[in-house]
Amino acid sequence: MQExxxxxxxxxxPGPSLVHPRVLRAMATPLLGHLDPAFLTVMTDIQxxxxxxxxxxxxxxxxxxxxxxxxxxxxxxxxxxxGDAVVVGVNGVFGTRLATVVERCGGKAIRVEAPWGRIIETxxxxxxxxRSGPVKAVALVHAETSTGARQxxxxxxxxxxxxxxxxxxxxxxxxxxxPVEVDAWGIDVCYSGTQKCLSCPPGLAPVTVxxxxxxxxxxxxxxxxxxxxxxxxxxxxxxxxxxxxxxxAPISMVYALREALxxxxxxxxxxxxxxxxxxxxxxxxxxxxxxxxxxxxxxxQLPMLTCVTVPSHIDDAVVRAQLLQAYGIEIGGGLGPLKxxxxxxxxxxxxSTEANVLTLxxxxxxxxx
Length: 369
Ligand code: PLP
Description:
The protein is α/β, with parallel strands linked by helices. The protein has 12 helices and 15 strands. The chain has a 7-stranded mixed sheet with strand order 2-10-9-8-5-3-4, with helices on both faces. It has a 4-stranded antiparallel sheet with strand order 11-12-15-14, covered by helices on one side. Strands 1-13 form a two-stranded parallel ribbon. The longest helix has 21 residues, at 269-289. The protein is globular and about 60 Å long. The protein starts with 9 loop residues before the first strand and ends with a helix. Pyridoxal-5'-phosphate is lined by residues 14-15, 67-69, 72, 94, 141, 143, 145, 170, 172-173, 193, 202.
């Protein structure tokens, strides 16, 4: 076999996004042992930077080994014991997956559904909480990557407290692209992924957990069903002063995340959010001129993931293949019921530039959309 040299690609799909050369360089630096004091400082740096991006003071703020789905599994498996009820917002692939994970943990998923592309209304969550018996948690997806819908979260935390439920949020696509206000919104468990707006390769799941959630986890009647994802065991590795072996950290990924977080910090969150908004507005204007309409209604659209309905005269698979083969541009197709019907165009992290917007729009024009 020959060395694998990947073709050049402009990653404008739902993730992974483009990665800054500094992050790639960090991944190629020599390994340290995962308990080496020098490596432990890297972990501490990551915790400090993640707290800033999550807007939280949570002590338990870590980068879990595994992709965004590991973050999702960890959030659910630590909180949910067999028989527990969880209200889950289901309006796309990732809400559906959350409900499945709840059920695999032996919990009862109370699905609050909305059509794909729409948000889950706070009133519907409140109604579900009021008519159900005790509910252990409410779980919502902030940025539903399968539809481009932006879920409002700010009123849900207070509702959860009134009903003595924990608030779990999927911020896989939203973190570092739009504000994620963990403490201000009363989020108890928030998880993300590295390959979206953080512009790092996939492989780690940033997670933050409130003291309230940690107390609930400590009071579990049964041990966490997963040994690998058990927060009480993982805490011993990430806790400063403890740092006891649990599993071997993916060292190179941890280096990469530290560098990606440094890049976020250098840019500053307000500037980063503004860049995502600006480039998304340019893309939306260009797509509108080409005859596309957005799936989510106005005011509910994500800046990092634009989901447009593909007009019936366009062959979805043919055009996406042309974009990839002739222009080296990746965009995403629809999932589940939206397969063949929508495109999902990501402008996440490093991928969110004016030049990339123009490159894509020019390619679509040349193809003759
Ligand atoms: N949640 C959301 C909203 C996502 O977009 C994704 C991935 O696209 C996931 C969870 C799962 O993350 P991963 O594919 O990194 O396991």
